[in-house]
Amino acid sequence: MILNIKNAIPDPETAVADRIVRRTLAKRESEYSSEVRRLLDAALELMGTHGTSSRPRVADIVAAAGLSNEAFYRHFRSKEALVTAILEDGAERLRGYLAHQLAKEVTPELQVRRWVEGVLAQADGESAATTLAVLWNGSGADGGIAAGRHFASAPLASLLCEPFAALGSASPELDAALAAHATLGMLSDCLWQRIQPTRAEIDRVMAFCLGAVTR
Question: Rg (Cα) of the chain, in Å, rounded?
């Protein structure tokens, strides 16, 4: 096979153009990432301040973020899409926190306990009020009590797969998903009722999760 030398030599003009395009795209990506972060943070702060008494408008959010409507709709098709992004962002942050907590334990039983306690701790204090406010903002005009349930199920359930497998689960992914739905369901109920789970309830959830894979 004869190599086409002409085609193998890069065109200097094309190489320069490619570098400029990559530099421009990298700068734009950084700017857009900053815009999204500012919108997420501004919306979260406003929703936390308003609670479940009123819903901030898109105009309020972009004003608080120091951006424009054009910037908002460049990244989100609607306020509901923004709320979804806030919940996803919160779920990933919670996952990171829980992963750090689980790494401190050496037995799968204690890892499961850390997970359950960490999830249900989200029903406590300012975190609970802010999460409820975000869910309420994403629940539509009527604010249905089931809105936002299990929004963090998949990322949080993944943390249980390894300890469940170590405990002898024949289907750790499924068992982890079921445990996550049960625990997050209780968290949702506590958030909407504005109550905190008791120590006995936390222990019961812990026993339920372990019982599903150790019987």
Answer: 23
